[in-house]
Amino acid sequence: NLIRAKDILEQSVGPDHPRTAEAYVRIAGFERKQGNHERAIEVIHGVLETTEKLVGYRVAGDAYMSLAKTYLAMGETTQSRTWAEKAAAWFDKMGAPASAADTRDWIEDNL
């Protein structure tokens, strides 16, 4: 159970740890795939501030992409593009050119 795993991570390493943030991103992805778009957005927005503080970690970019995919699933292409572009910029900032390129390819293919 993803929620239980997230709760255990929060207790063991703390709510601001990269692994905890990654758990939130996974939960949001699960919610999106189940069609629970509003819940997915709520989960990601709940962890964005934490992920943005984790300089040196890709999790913020992953969170931005989760939002981009959720908004696309909802038919909100402008919002989707905004978050996907933010993800690409984050990956560039983190020195992850392959992830940035993959994100730009995703934008081209989906938006």
Keywords:
111 residues, mainly alpha, 6 helices
Quick structural summary:
By secondary structure, the chain is mostly helical.
Explain how this protein is built.
The protein has 111 residues and is mostly helical. Helices cover 82% and strands 0% of the residues. Helix 2 packs antiparallel against helix 3 (37-53) and helix 5 runs antiparallel to helix 6. The radius of gyration is 14 Å and the shape is globular. The model has no long low-confidence stretch (mean pLDDT 92).
Spatial separation of the terminal alpha carbons: 33 Å
Identify the overall geometry: globular
Radius of gyration: 14 Å
Give the helix level as a range of percent: over 70%
Can you lay out the helices and strands and say which pair or pack?
Blueprint: H1 2-13, H2 18-33, H3 37-53, H4 59-73, H5 77-93, H6 97-110
Helix pairs in contact: 1-2, 2-3, 2-4, 3-4, 4-5, 5-6
